[in-house]
Specification:
Structural class: mainly alpha
Radius of gyration: 18 Å
Strand content: under 5%
Number of domains: 1
Length: about 110
Amino acid sequence: MTPREIAIAALAVGGVFFAVVAAVGVIRLPDLYTRSHSASKSDTLGAGMALAAVALTFGADISTVKTVLLLLFMFITNPTAAHAITRAAAEEGIEPWTRDDEEVDE
């Protein structure tokens, strides 16, 4: 394998890993705020790594430029959208989860 192929494989595997971490976080975390954090951070990184792998695969082509522009667009919009959603939730009075909210089995 060439170094380029190794980089493509590493970026693709990293992208899948962070996408799975984001999915598990959305399923397992207790409230909107922590789920939003998981989805915005991990999903952005996972998609970014996957798009970087795609850009490397295309090589020097117009498709690479389009992929890099999509990557930049995602890095700007994903965290901004997550912030807007959590801010709207805070303004609506949705309280963050705390330890006191846990049900205690007796």
